[in-house]
């Protein structure tokens, strides 16, 4: 099944910062994070160079995706780490998987 909306988690090269977001075009959004990291640094992801994809999950409706994004954002770091590890045990950068 193809999904129209995604909740995703990106990190920096050293995996010290996490950014949770929602988008309808994950490839474009990763490119925007990369551009902001290298240029303007206006967003959290840009300031902390978070453009390495660790986790994503697809949704059919924007409402469901937004609800999930808000849920994950409220979690403590330990719970976010577990979510990532269950999906991506080696914490590999998945950018090439979605491009």
From TrEMBL:
User: Which residue numbers delimit the GIY-YIG domain?
Assistant: 3-82
* Position of the signal peptide: none
PROSITE patterns reported in the protein's UniProt record: GIY_YIG
Against PANTHER family, the record matches this protein to: BSL5627 PROTEIN, UPF0213 PROTEIN YHBQ
This protein's source sits in the domain of life called Bacteria
Q: What is this protein called?
A: GIY-YIG nuclease family protein
Membership in a protein family: Belongs to the UPF0213 family.
Q: Name one Pfam family in it.
A: GIY-YIG
């Amino acid at each position: 099944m193809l999904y129209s909306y995604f909740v995703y988690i990106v990190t920096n090269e050293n995996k010290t910062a996490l950014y949770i977001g929602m988008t309808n075009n994950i490839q474009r959004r990763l490119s925007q994070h990369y551009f902001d990291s290298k240029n303007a640094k206006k967003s959290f992801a840009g300031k902390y160079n978070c453009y390495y994809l660790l986790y994503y999950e697809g949704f059919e409706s924007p409402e469901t995706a937004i609800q999930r994004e808000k849920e994950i954002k409220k979690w403590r770091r330990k719970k976010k780490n577990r979510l990532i590890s269950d999906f991506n045990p080696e914490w590999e950068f998945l950018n090439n998987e979605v491009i």
